[in-house]
Amino acid sequence: MIWRAFCVIFVVSTATVLPPVAAVFRAAPAFWVAASLLVFLTYLMIENQLARRRLAESSGAAELWYLGRYAEALAEMEGTRGQGPAHPRASLQRAMLLLCVWRVGEAISALEDCLRGNASDTHVRDVARPYLAYANALMGNVEAFGRWKALAAAGHPACILGEGILACRRGDWAEAHRVLATPALGALGGPMRGLREALRVWAAARSGATLPRADTATIAAPGELDALRAVWPDAGAYLAEAG
Asked: Model confidence over 185-226: pLDDT tens digits?
């Protein structure tokens, strides 16, 4: 922030506020162009270092995420917000952690912000699009799910899970059972894996089939199911009962 203010003050004062300096600028434009460029490059270097520092600070959150301590990981990331420019991957981590604790509406906003701020970053696009499809499926936003699915890589597990979620939401249990049995969903981890297994058991029971009881402990920590129940009451109630 200090360097942003310095750059603005430098340019404005040199060009408009201080007539003697402006006169010097007109007399020796090459020098002042070089000086302005140096200040600008220094500013970029500092911004880049701040972004790298924030990414390094997020490594602690990544370790907590790996251990399945999603709420703690998110709290650690939230603690570093506003301390400099956010690295694109750190912003993606935060969005994914919001999904892990079922703060789905916030996750959608965070993923959309990532895309707006990093439109040319292929990694951001490849991650954000399928998970936006999945998040909108959780919310029951059929149109938005279809739009993001069309932009995502074909056959992405997050999109397939989204299809299964929407089938459950509309009560098409046979279709939900079929989709949720897709082998590609075996690549899912964390709460998404637990949700897939629980929904598969739910769909099987509603369509007349039988599957072993799912372990719902991986889906949400105590108290986190309330957030899922807020966006999908039926699933939240089922998972609370199954747990």
From this structure: 999 999 999 999 999 999 998 988 777 777 667 787 767 888
CB 127 within 8 A of CB 99: no
**Per-residue pLDDT at 241:** 83
User: pLDDT exceeding 70 applies to what percent of the chain?
Assistant: 70
